[in-house]
């Protein structure tokens, strides 16, 4: 029988862990956040998710092949009561719709068996008037557009609603969340699992490190004992914007991102 399989190094203990989920988002925010956490929290590759119908691709880093959906763990201590370690689950792959529910169901069965405490999904939505360029998977949200980078949250349980309130993240009043983030939230709600989403306003035209830095500021209230320094992301954003500005000045028209790519990052 073809089914999703979640596998981890047997030495990894996930009891009372916070699972951070980073699947493709507008402006590649989740990918930027994931790589930032891996580097700054010294997380190590410990496993992944496999399914025979996932695209036959792998990510290669430093000469090592890695699965499209992979897991990282390390020593950072969670700041939330009832949570004492962190697992990062990430991918640059847009999971095909036909596989989403099966993979999400397997993740919840696995996380319950491992006695994980709670989960947070990193997501993003396009600035007003812009398209997300995410193969139709970008969320559609109604939010109060301010001059700053806006953030909203979604919570599957009252406990996670209270946590968002403590973090000063307003609840999303209305919207549609698709793909893996949407299925994770929906399944979490039906199962009564403590899972929430932090959603940030992002520019879909290029990797939005500024939006990622805002997410890091909020995660800093949840994750390690030592504060995360998000300033490198701000510097990265400035350099990236300068590069793109130079590219646009040298072209007759700005290139538009491909809407058919399956990988982001």
List the helices and strands and how they pair.
Layout: E1 5-8, E2 17-22, H1 29-40, E3 44-50, E4 59-61, E5 64-66, E6 69-73, E7 85-91, H2 97-113, E8 118-126, E9 140-142, E10 151-155, H3 158-166, E11 174-176, H4 179-191, E12 195-202, H5 209-219, H6 231-249
Parallel strand pairs: 2-7, 2-8, 8-12
Antiparallel strand pairs: 1-3, 3-6, 4-5, 6-7, 9-11, 10-12
Helix pairs in contact: 1-5, 2-4, 5-6
Question: Can you give a write-up of this model?
Answer:
- The protein has helices spanning 29-40, 97-113, 158-166, 179-191, 209-219, 231-249; strands spanning 5-8, 17-22, 44-50, 59-61, 64-66, 69-73, 85-91, 118-126, 140-142, 151-155, 174-176, 195-202.
- By secondary structure, the protein is an alpha/beta fold.
- It has one domain (17-245): PAC-like subunit (Rossmann fold, 3-Layer(aba) Sandwich).
- The strands form three sheets. An eight-stranded mixed sheet has the order 1-3-6-7-2-8-12-10, sandwiched between helices. A two-stranded antiparallel ribbon has the order 4-5. A two-stranded antiparallel ribbon has the order 9-11.
- Strand 4 and strand 5 form a beta hairpin.
- Residues 252-265 have low confidence and may be disordered.
